[in-house]
Every structure is written in C-alpha cells, then in structure tokens.
Amino acid sequence: MKKLPVYAMLFLCSLLFIAPLFWAVTTALKSQTELYLFPPKWIPSVWKFGNFAEAWTSQPFNLFLKNTLAVTALSTLGQLVSCALVAYGFARFTFKGRDFLFLVVLATMMIPWEVTMIPQYMEFNYLGWINTLKPLIVPSWFGSAYFIFLLRQFILTIPRELDEAATIDGASKLGIFRKIIVPLMGPSLILVAVFQMMNCWNDYLGPLIFLNDQSQYTLTLGLAQFKGMYGVDMQSIMAVTCLISILPLVVFFLAQRYIVGGIAGTGIKG
C-alpha cells in the first residue's frame, strides 16, 4: 500500500507513451468517414482489420521488408565485429598514442551526420554505390565511436588475470578475444545489436539520400510514399506503421534484461 501512489504515478506517466501507439492502432482500424471526425473518436464503430492487408499490398512492402532486413542484419553484424575488435585493442593493448587515438575516436561523436553527408555522397557516387544498399551497410563495418566506447568500458571490467592465465596456456591474443572476451561480452554485444537494429530499422534520411530506385527502397521510404501531392493516406500510414513496429517491439521486450545488464556492466549511468 505504501508503494501504491508511486505505481499510480508511473501508470499515469506511462499513458503519455501508450496513447500515441493506441491512437495509431485505432486509426488503422477506422473507416475513411471516421478518420477526420471532430471531436475525434478513439474507438472505431466498425473494426476494419482488412485495412492492414490493403495497406501492405498497395505497395511492394514485401520487397521493402527484404531490403530492410538485409541492411539491418549486415549492418548489425558489421558493428558487432568491428566495434568489438577495436574496443578490445583499446582496452587490452598498450601502444604509443593509444589514449590520443581514443580521444580522436570519441571526438567524432561531436560531428553531426549532416556535416559528413555531402562528402559521403560524393564518395559513394565516385565508387558507383548510389542507388544500391552498400552505402547503408559498408560504413557499419568500420565501427561506431559510441559502440566502441561502450564495449571498451565493459572489457575494462573483465579481470586481466583471465588473459594472463590464457596466455600461460598458450592462447594467442586473437584466441583470448574469441574464447574469453567475446563470451563475457554477451550482454554488451546484445545491447549494441539492439541499438544498431533500431537505428537501421528506423533510418529514413540515409535511404532517402542514397536510394533512387523503388526496388531498393526500405520500409521507411515505402511508408513515405503514402504522402501524396494532394493529401496524406493517414489510414494506410498508421496501418503500415503498426505492422513494421512489431519486430522492433518484440526484439526490445526479448532483450530488455540484456539491455539493462549491458548498460550496467559498462559503468555508464544515466
């Protein structure tokens, strides 16, 4: 009973986040006549579940989903491999200029993507990658400053005695990384994978700049096609939005405890 006011306050605050999602679902289920009623109706008179199928088949969303899954999977794999290796190097190796180089890596976090957007476009255009999925995948294989920092902080919490014991047993540096460091980094790697997946899944500006052909579109660009010159198909937008939100929500709820553990294990407090 003492915690009842706290839970009541948390419930009221949660409504601020639940209400937009609930509105999106109910809007997707409404008929055209109920979309723009004033005052608005939260609950539709007739639940039109067929709106989801009509919206999904009105555009080649199966193709968009395939492109998005390819970009998300390959980009996430690239971030995991590259960031884990770089973080291991910064955390376990001692070399001249290591701390300065790490500061340079962290300094890149202060540069907004809008500054490097045009140079990247010129570079990818020179390579002939425009209108392909490569500009959305290849940069992820060169790491992310934030993920490198996060994984480095976690590796620093792993006792060096494990490395020394493995070295005595004849393990190489790469063997130590593969057999000792990576298994212990499980929560942090899951955290990086979830964050990267969310970034790729919701990315709109990147595909908008680098993709021109509809056959290469991702889900976000396909969703934007419902916005026409003379109006917005709000019903279809909400229906597709609900459908493409299912996978990220499922992944987040399944990995929730790993996300909390990964953040706690890195020593990052917020």
Class of secondary structure makeup: mainly alpha
Determine the CATH superfamily of the largest domain. MetI-like
Query: What fraction, in percent, of the residue positions are helical?
Result: 55-70%
Average pLDDT, rounded to a whole number, is: 86
Distance between the termini: 29 Å
- CATH architectural designation of the largest domain: Orthogonal Bundle
Shape estimate: globular
- In the CATH hierarchy, what is the class of the largest domain? Mainly Alpha
How many helices? The count is 15
Task: Give the beta-strand count.
Answer: 0
What name does CATH use for the topology of the largest domain?
A: MetI-like fold
Specify Rg, calculated over alpha carbons: 23 Å
Q: How much beta, percentage-wise?
A: under 5%
Low-confidence stretches: none
Q: Could you give a short account of the major beta sheet? A: none
Counted up, domains total 2
What series of H and E elements makes up the topology?
Answer: HHHHHHHHHHHHHHH
Descriptive keywords:
270 residues; transmembrane; 2 domains; MetI-like; single chain
How would you characterize this protein structure?
- By secondary structure, the protein is mostly helical.
- It has 2 domains: 1-48, no CATH class; 58-266, Orthogonal Bundle (MetI-like fold).
- The protein is built from 15 helices and no strands.
- Helix 2 (50-58) crosses helix 13 (234-244), helix 3 (61-92) packs antiparallel against helix 10 and helix 7 packs across helix 15 (256-266).
